[in-house]
């Protein structure tokens, strides 16, 4: 019963993170061409730092010695999961087609995470998890290609695809690193520290960006409200929920939930952007949901008989 409750809470936490991140794709798309990638990441995580630090300062002070003890682990996690992951994704979004971005971003990371979890965390990858992962992948591609598999003929790797592929790998590594979080370290304090460190690491990257990226940004209230959403919702609340899900469900199972992002992005596009909802959306949704069910809730043990039952 306790295990079932933890699984349910983990599933709901991952679902909340996915919903927030799917909204992030809808919102961030409108300013991708007006804000350079490193600056976009810095503004997002600076906003998140301003929000979360006052709320967690007391816990951070109480656990300061523990934080200092694990500063190397926290720095690596922050650099990979905060500084580089989002920046690589934003860079890739400037160079690759939408079909490439969606396929790589939503499908590669769960695959990477499952492989890494099996290698480094010794998580078992049974038949139903593999089948579920495959169904999720098919569902995502079916959604992106609008049910016409011939669209895949237009799929060509570009430099943007490489950036997004590296971003997916980085987020998979981050998901594995979260599983290694010291048990005694408070979850909110952990997130506040890696967000703050990740923000600091982005500052010198601005100089690197200026060497290769010639683009100016005009800050206004529109961008301010977008950054508030990205900082509070898609960063603080989403990452807290995602980290909670990793601890409850495991790294590979949680990563599979990322396949729901294009599904929710479609629903949000219908609701907020008044886009049409077609049969392809229903079919892809069914494939993704079945895949998630197989990967998360069907166990090999359920289909194993004891010797005395044969």
Give structural attributes.
single chain; mainly alpha; globular; 310 residues
Overview in brief:
Helices cover 76% and strands 0% of the residues. The chain is mainly alpha-helical and 310 residues long. α1 crosses α11 and α8 (187-212) crosses α9.
Provide the residue-averaged pLDDT.
81
User: Quaternary status of these chains?
Assistant: single chain
What class do helices, strands and sheet pairing give?
Answer: mainly alpha
Instruction: Tell me the β content.
Output: under 5%
What percent of residues adopt helix (DSSP H or I)?
over 70%
Question: Tell me about the biggest sheet?
Answer: none
Number of helices: 12
Query: What is the tally of beta strands?
Result: 0
Order of helices and strands: HHHHHHHHHHHH
Cα distance, first to last residue?
A: 28 Å
Q: Would you mind describing this structure in some detail?
A:
Helix 5 packs parallel to helix 7 and helix 6 (127-144) runs antiparallel to helix 12 (279-297). The protein is mainly α and 310 residues long. It is built from twelve helices and no strands. Residues 302-310 have low confidence and may be disordered. The longest helix is centred in the C-terminal third of the chain and has 29 residues, at 221-249. It has helices spanning 2-28, 37-62, 64-69, 71-93, 98-120, 127-144, 159-179, 187-212, 221-249, 251-256, 261-272, 279-297.
Please give the structural blueprint.
Blueprint: H1 2-28, H2 37-62, H3 64-69, H4 71-93, H5 98-120, H6 127-144, H7 159-179, H8 187-212, H9 221-249, H10 251-256, H11 261-272, H12 279-297
